[in-house]
Design brief:
The protein is about 30% helix and about 25% strand. It contains 6 helices and 8 strands, in the order βαβαβαβββαβαβα. Strands 1-8-7-2-3-5-4-6 form an 8-stranded mixed beta sheet, sandwiched between helices. Helix 2 links the parallel strand 2 and strand 3.
Length: about 230
């Protein structure tokens, strides 16, 4: 089952039943007003700020809704920028989630930023949180993960996450035919990872352009055995 919906995530989530989701893997706005300054074409989509990337209340309410729809003794992975880690941590704990790990995703490149006063940032944070206690599948691994970021012509969204990283999240904390949710699906990478691992997927995206990209990408992948 693949269920893709375009619109406001909070409004749509309110139609999802309590404790009906097996796993959440999500990449919400980081609250940093991110946009790239490195592209020559300043009209490119990546040169515009991501929708709601300054809306703290959205993240607060989103985390509450995630807690409500997630089954007991289940897990959520939520991506976060190091500049806003305190806010995300406080909101997760306040809602009732138990923080199990702050996973360090080490990427194959680093940021530009202040070239003379700041070292290049080469990682992002992924919170692994539990509603209750959720045992992982398979062998225990460390909280430092090495996955190459998506770049160049393969990049469909400025914050696109690698499918193999998302697959690791899904495989560690869900079973085949479980329902995985992402309220900010962007270009649809979590949906692709679900198809590759035989999971059901519910994805929401506000931006109509990215929703269409995600839908086309997921529809295409559904016709194949696996995709990246």
């Amino acid at each position: 089952m693949i269920d893709l919906r375009q619109g406001d995530c909070l409004g749509i989530m309110r139609s999802i039943e309590n404790e009906s989701i097996d796993l959440i893997v999500t990449d919400p706005p980081y609250l940093i007003k991110y946009k790239t300054n490195r592209r020559k074409n300043k009209q490119h989509d990546f040169c515009s700020e991501i929708l709601n990337d300054d809306n703290y209340n959205l993240i607060t309410e989103y985390i509450k809704e995630c807690f409500r729809i997630l089954k007991r003794n289940s897990a959520m992975y939520i991506f976060c920028n190091c500049d806003r880690v305190d806010f995300f941590k406080q909101e997760l704990e306040k809602t009732g989630f138990k923080i199990k790990n702050m996973i360090i995703w080490v990427k194959n490149n680093w940021t530009a930023g202040d070239l003379k006063a700041q070292f290049g940032k080469q990682y992002e944070i992924i919170f692994l949180v539990n509603k209750g206690r959720c045992l992982f599948n398979g062998k225990r691994i460390t909280d430092v993960w090495n996955f190459n970021r998506i770049a160049g012509n393969k990049q469909l969204h400025q914050n696109q996450k690698p499918v193999d990283l998302l697959e690791q999240c899904i495989l560690k904390h869900s079973k085949e035919n479980d329902i995985v949710f992402d309220g900010f699906m962007g270009s649809g990478s979590t949906g692709i990872a679900c198809i590759n691992t035989n999971r059901n997927f519910i994805g929401i995206e506000l931006d109509e352009n990215y929703f269409n990209i995600a839908k086309n990408r997921i529809d295409s992948c559904s016709k194949q055995l696996s995709c990246f």
